């Protein structure tokens, strides 16, 4: 390459993808070969200056948008002071302030405490440790289709084999799974509760169960919403048998569902709540928040980690909580969800053979794609066709679901309404193009 060529050389998405494939493990793949140059609120630009409307938010992480100025300011100010001392060695005020805020906003009136870690999987693992330390019991109950992380214990909790659990066993024992109530697939609340009581008779006594962990809305599982009556029934069963109820709010928290936490829709106070993703505008931090007598069960030194509660991430999280209040993000979440719901239900009415259901709680929205309008005939092929072509339409989309046939929408809760409408229009055109292409193939 000549000096002139070097001076004008610019890496492309293709060249970056080749470099990544050469050095990054295959298991850490990427959905889109679009390498990010910069981002602002709900828009992302790649290294070739292509623009995308972000309907993924880094998997519900950037609820307050990309590069929010208040988050940038908080992170910058903290970095000028110090970046790390270890909260377990030399603690710092910003970590205490965040714990105070999290305890304050957690649902329910019980006295609470918090612990800070780095990731959602760490939060889940620690919630199980805390529940077992408190109860002196072994069993953990989770749900089919649930997702709780990629570590060994959280994979055991996760109720889906591919791609999360395949080739990675053996997994920890004393983990049990129940059917998650989903009306579309004829699994009623009564069916799930009956399975729970059967489990108590067949596999593990209720007196040996430490915790039940549930996502109030399943994330990777397909955006299925746990009915209010089911959450209330679980709360009563846990109370009757002294079982710890853990709400995994990692994807549903911090305004995503129109409440600060999704379990507030059912007016249920969990014993423990796991928090991550939307907590800090993209900075890596997570937390477990729960009732004081349960949180204090582990001995000093039994919880923690070198980087847990990074002061920089704590500063970002405090800024995010201020943004949520100042910019009325909960109301905004419901407004965004209503706009999506109107457009997507209209699309369903036009294409009933392809869309089995539109699900929406706040700005957590999913559409389930089927064949011939039959919920028992999932359509993952069409789902992946839409996801694969999204880049051509300037969109970032995600799939999920037990059968990989759900498209989920997780836009930043700060998205400008004009850009939201533009993105939805792009999606509708994308959907129509894929349908027409498939109809042409069939004919």
TrEMBL record:
Molecular function in Gene Ontology: 4-aminobutyrate:2-oxoglutarate transaminase activity; identical protein binding; pyridoxal phosphate binding
- GO biological process: what's one of them? gamma-aminobutyric acid metabolic process
Q: Which NCBIfam families match?
A: GABAtrnsam (TIGR00700)
Name the UniProt record assigns to this protein: 4-aminobutyrate aminotransferase
**InterPro entries reported for this sequence:** 4NH2But_aminotransferase_bac, Aminotrans_3, Aminotrans_3_PPA_site, Class-III_PLP-dep_AT, PyrdxlP-dep_Trfase, PyrdxlP-dep_Trfase_major, PyrdxlP-dep_Trfase_small
Source organism:
Aliiglaciecola lipolytica E3
Q: Which UniProt keywords apply?
A: Aminotransferase, Pyridoxal phosphate, Transferase
Q: Which SUPFAM superfamilies match?
A: PLP-dependent transferases
Which cofactors does it use?
pyridoxal 5'-phosphate
The upper taxonomy is: Bacteria, Pseudomonadati, Pseudomonadota, Gammaproteobacteria, Alteromonadales
Parts of the chain that traverse the membrane: none
Q: Which family does it belong to?
A: Belongs to the class-III pyridoxal-phosphate-dependent aminotransferase family.
